[in-house]
Amino acid sequence: MATPLVEMKDISISFGGIKAVDHVSVDLYPGEVVGLLGHNGAGKSTLIKILSGAYKADAGEIRVNGEKVEIHNPREARDLNIETIYQTLALADNLDAASNLFLGRELITPMGLIDDAAMEAECRKIMGRLNPNFRKFAEPVSALSGGQRQSVAIARAVYFNAKILIMDEPTAALGPHETQMVSDLIQKLKAEGIGIFLIDHDVHAVMELCDRASVMKNGELVGTVNIDEVTDDDLLSMIILGKNPAAAA
Amino acid sequence: MADTTSPTAATVVTKSKFQELELDLRLLGMIGALVLLCIGFNLMTDGRFLTPRNIFNLSIQTVSVAIMACGMVFIIVTRHIDLSVGALLATCSAIMAMLQTQWLPQTLGLGLGNPMIWVIAIVLGLVAGTAIGAFQGWLVGYLTIPAFIVTLGGFLVWRNVAWYLTDGQTIGPLDANFLKLGGINGTLGTTWSWVLGAVAAAAAVWALVNARRAKVNYGFPTKPVWAEAVMATISVGAILGFIATLNAYTIPERRLERMFEARGEIMPEGLIVGYGVPISVLLLLAVALVLTVVARKTRFGRYIFATGGNPDAAELSGINTRWLTVKVFALMGFLCALSAVVASARLANHSNDIGTLDELRVIAAAVIGGTALAGGSGTIYGAILGALIMQALQSGMAMVGVDAPFQNIVVGSVLVLAVLLDIVYRKRVGVK
Lengths: 249, 432
Hints:
The structure holds two protein chains of two kinds.
Chain A: E1 6-15, E2 18-28, E3 33-37, H1 44-51, E4 59-64, E5 67-69, H2 74-79, E6 82-85, H3 97-101, H4 116-130, H5 146-159, E7 164-168, H6 176-191, E8 195-199, H7 203-209, E9 212-217, E10 220-226, H8 232-241, H9 245-248
Parallel strand pairs in A: 3-8, 3-9, 6-7, 7-8
Antiparallel strand pairs in A: 1-2, 1-4, 4-5, 9-10
Chain B: H1 6-10, H2 17-20, H3 25-44, H4 52-77, H5 85-107, H6 117-141, H7 147-166, H8 176-179, H9 189-218, H10 225-248, H11 253-262, H12 279-297, H13 299-309, H14 311-316, H15 321-347, H16 358-368, H17 380-400, H18 404-429
Helix pairs in contact in B: 3-17, 4-10, 4-12, 4-15, 4-16, 4-17, 5-6, 5-7, 5-15, 6-7, 6-15, 9-10, 12-13, 16-17, 17-18
C-alpha cells in the first residue's frame, strides 16, 4: 500500500491532569475521507488541533508523506499543505470575503502594499467555482449566511492547494441545500487526491461521505473501521459503548 | 456562469443621486456635528470663533492629542486600551527637554544652540517612547497581563519618572529649532502652503482616479463618473479652503518687525505676511496619511483589524498576535513621543503637568471618531475628527465664557452621548 499522507502515532496530550487524547493513532491516505467520530469531549477536536498546529502534543509522532515532522504553529501546518476548516469557522467577522480568504497570506503589490483588487479578483474566481451564487464580496463576512461563510472557509483551504484537509463539523450550521453543496465539494476534492479528516457527530453524514471512520471515546481510540464493513448501529455502539465490532467478532 | 458580468447585473437597483455618492454616513455625521458646533460658537461669540486666527489656533491645539489618537485607534481595534499615553508623553517630553537644556550641552559639551541638539534630542525621545511602548506591549502580549492594568501602572510610573527626571521643575527655554515643531513658531509661509495644497489636491484626485482605474481593470462595479467628480471637487475644495484660511492669518505687525530686526533688516512699509500651514499640522497630516495606508494597505494593518475582529481566527491563520501586540504598543509609544515634541514645543518648555488627562482626551477622540471598544473597527480620519470636535468644544466654551467645571461636565457628557449615538447607528445599519 502507498505511504499514507498523514500518520499520527501514539499521540497524547493532557490539560491540567486530564488526558484529552490518550495514545491515539490514526492515518489518512490520498483521496480518502476518514471520519473522526465521538461524543463531545471525546478528544476528536483536540487530536485534530495537534495536526493543525494549534496544540502541541505531549507525546507521539506525526509523519507527513512518511517523513517525521514537528508542527509548532498553524503556519508550519500550512507549509505542509495541511489546511483546517474550524468548527467556529475562524473568520474575522469585520473583514470581507477576500481579506479572509487571504488572511495571513495576502497578495502584495511590487511596492509591498496589499493588493486588494487582485485579491478580490482571485476571490471572485474561486467563489465562482465553489459557490456561483455568492455575491457579497464587499460586505464584511458578518453579513453572510452560515453556508456563505462556510464556502469562504472552504475556499480558503482549496485556494492554497491543500493536500490534507481537516474539516471540523463542516455542515453543523447549514441547511439541507448547503449541506448538499458541501458534500459535493468533498467528493470533488477527494477525486483530486486530497486526503480529508472529517470530524462529525452525525453518523449518517459519516456513512455517506467517508471511506473509513475512527471512533474516539474519553480521549482513547475505540477503533478504526472500513465504512463498507459496518452499519450505522455498529458505529453508534462504538461511539456510545466504546465497543469495537472487529474486536467483538 | 460568466463571472465578470454577473455582479453588475445583480446590482442594478435604482439608487438615489445621494446614495450613488457612496458616502460614509458616520463620517458625514461627524463632519456635520463639527460644522454645527463651529457655527453655533461663531454665533455666540459674534463671529470670533471662525476667524483665521482661531482656526489656526484650533489646529495647533488639536495636533498633540490627534497624533496620539491615531495610535489609540490601533490599540483599541486590537481590543486593548492604553491609559498611559499622557504620562508617557510627559516622560518623553522630560527626556527631550533635559537632553537639549542640560545633558547634551553640559555633559556632552555640545554648546547651547548647537544645530545638532534638537535632532539628537528628538531622535532619542522617539527611541525612548518606542522602547517604553514596546515594553508595555510585551507585558500585554507575551506575559498576558491585561492592557488596562499594564497601562494603569504605566500611568503612575511614567508620570513620576518624568517628575524624577526634572525634579518637578519646568524645563526651558527649549532649543529654538525644536520650537519650530510646536505651531506658531514654525509655519510654511503662504507660498509653500499653496504648493503643499496643490500637491495634496493633485494627490487626492490621483488617488480617486487610480482607485477607479483598478476597479475598471478587474471589472468590478464602479460609481458613476459624476459622483467621482463631485467627490474630487469636495476634496480639492476642502484642501484649498483649509490652506487659504491658514494663509489668511497674518503675522501681527509688531512681531513681523521683530523678525526683520533679528535678521538685521528693516521691514518694508505695509508688508503683510500670512502664517500658512504650521509644521506641527503638517506632522499630523503625515502621521494620518501614513497610518491610513498602514491600516488599509499593509499586512500589519490588516492583521490589526483581523485580530480585533476575531483573535482566534487571526491566531489560527498563522498571525503572531503576541508580536503584533508589541508592535502596536511600540507604535503608540512612538506617537506619544512625537506628540511630546509638538506639545512641549508649543508651550516652549517642559512643565511637570504636561499631558495631564491626555489619556482621556485621546481615548475620547478615538471613540467619538467611531472606534468601537469591542475591537475590529475604527478609522484614522475619524479619530482626528474626534480630536477636532473635542478641541472645538473646549475652546469654544472657553471663548463663550462657560465656567471651567461646566466645560468638563459638557465634554464628559458629549463623550457618553457620542458612544450612544454610535451604538444606535450600528444597530440601525446592522453592523456589529
